[in-house]
Amino acid sequence: MTKPLALVVYEQMMPGSQVVNRLQDLGYRVHVLSEPAPLSDVAEREKAIVVVMDLVYTSTDPGPPITRLRQSPTTAHIPILAYAPSNDTHLAEVATAAGVTLIASEAAIISQLPRLLDRVLEVE
Predict the structure, then answer these.
(1) Domain containing 48 — which CATH number?
(2) Is 45 left (phi over 0), alpha (psi -120 to 50) or beta?
(3) Which structural domain range is residue 32 located in?
């Protein structure tokens, strides 16, 4: 049986690499993107079941790639678990408006990852 694929998008090594390791420990295959621009294309091609995404980037806005993922009929169903500094409410608002399923703090993403994944992967 094939392991489920998590698409992880991050620029900062910490906690990005920790998220990758934790997902692998949880039994996921992981595909890493260092920038969000190709998010929708890669998610469709690789058949990701979840996206875990850092919202902090130095040279790009992650909002438009999230919106493209949500607007595509072939990827709109993929949940996005995003993380950001807990004090950045503006970033959280922009990400929510773009279509992020759930936002966690950088501190919680590692310690609470199994529980957070259960929440975003829950079928309604």
Answers:
(1) 3.40.50.2300
(2) alpha
(3) 5-121
- Flag whether pLDDT at 89 surpasses 80: yes
Going by C-beta distance under 8 Å and a sequence separation of 6 or more, which residues neighbour residue 77?
none
For residue 98, what is the DSSP state? H
17: three-class secondary structure by DSSP = helix
pLDDT in tens, 41-84: 999 999 999 999 999 988 888 899 999 999 999 999 999 999 99
Per-residue pLDDT at 124: 62
Number of domains in the chain: 1
Give all strands of the β-sheet with 50-54 in edge-to-edge order: 29-33, 5-9, 50-54, 80-84, 102-105
